[in-house]
Amino acid sequence: MANVSLQKVEKSYQNVHVVHGIDLDIDDGEFVVLVGPSGCGKSTTLRMVAGLERLTGGEIHIGERVVNDVPPRERDIAMVFQNYALYPHMTVAENMAYGLRLRKMDETEVKKRVAIAADMLDLNALLERRPQALSGGQRQRVAMGRAMVREPKVFLFDEPLSNLDAKLRVKMRAEIKKLHQMVRTTTIYVTHDQVEAMTLADRVVVMNKGRIEQVGPPQLLYHEP
Ligand code: ADP
Ligand code: ADP
């Protein structure tokens, strides 16, 4: 596990500032949700933590390390995307194992971790299927499994439920919450859905126009206009 600290984090493209000097300290094991209107800079902020975007100012710390120049693979993070990003030619088991095999992890350990994740996420019956033979909710569980087996210090979620129908969203929300209660991995979760934010967050960060507008407990959102 690790704490994450954003210090005066900035991002601009040419002359357009999309993130304006954000300061945010996230505790070890905390579940923080970034909310705010479309285009306010949530995803850009998350992608900077992931190492998928470079900062144009400030620093990001994960645990003891300043990670500004650390490539994504070496950050001890795992990210779950809205579009699942599964490999179509691989089975569910292979998809989950991929990131570990890439890192040349011992095969016994790979199998063990995939088995544990499959149990936790109820994927045992699906391990030999390919993504196209899965429902949206099942695909999203595989994407979570792929992140989980890495045993990262930090989980990053970028609108992971946006492509699911309302009923499935509610179910997956509960599963994500249960998973966090079990593993207690530091989590940063981006959504534009306030209900999702309220049910999942230990702390909600409301962004607007590239700035943090409010930080507080989920009840904070009840006072939004
Ligand atoms: P959110 O996740 O809150 O919807 P984003 O972080 O995706 O917002 O985007 C924030 C702003 O940055 C938007 O105005 C978007 O158009 C802009 N932006 C994102 N990526 C790029 C890019 N590669 N080039 C230029 N502008 C970008
Ligand atoms: P990992 O090595 O962590 O298992 P992958 O090999 O699956 O990651 O992906 C390589 C890089 O591409 C990672 O840094 C990941 O964050 C990024 N990436 C994967 N899927 C997507 C996506 N759908 N959108 C944006 N970036 C992605």
Automatic annotation (TrEMBL):
Keyword Phosphoprotein (UniProt): no
A GO term, aspect molecular function: ATP binding
Superkingdom of origin: Bacteria
Key word Amino-acid biosynthesis present: no
Limits of the ABC transporter domain: 4-225
Keywords: ATP-binding, Nucleotide-binding, Transport
Stated family: Belongs to the ABC transporter superfamily.
Protein name, per record: Sugar ABC transporter ATP-binding protein
Span covered, complete protein: 1 to 225 of 363
